[in-house]
Amino acid sequence: MKGDIKIWYRNLDAKGKFIRSLWGGALALLFLYLVVWFAPLRPSFDNGLIKMWIPLVGTMLIVIDLAFTYTKWKREEKSKK
Q: Membrane-crossing residues (predicted)?
């Protein structure tokens, strides 16, 4: 049914997984960059690893995940036709 609300990630189709990854990734990046923004308030967190490498790796992982779920969605959509 089209109107069903699916809570569990494994029960979603490829389009639903992409949409959930899209907003979930955006929220994760928002939280990550807020932590980096407030890192100078805690001297133990104010270093190059937290300021540069962790946000860079996190952003790259989310972009790769979005690209993977998008191609999976389009492949599934194409096979249905």
A: 21-40, 52-71
Tell me the domain boundaries of the chain: 9-80
Spell out the residues 6+ positions from residue 58 whose beta carbon is closer than 8 angstroms to its own.
Answer: 28, 29, 32
Task: For residues 1 and 78, give the distance between their C-alpha atoms in angstroms, rounded to a whole number.
Answer: 20
pTM of the model: 0.79
pLDDT tens, 15-69? 889 999 999 999 999 999 998 888 788 777 778 777 888 899 999 999 999 999 9
Residue 28: partners with Cβ closer than 8 Å, 6 or more residues away: 58, 62
Cα–Cα distance, 9 to 61 (Å, whole number): 18
- DSSP for 29-42 reads HHHHHHHHHTGGGS
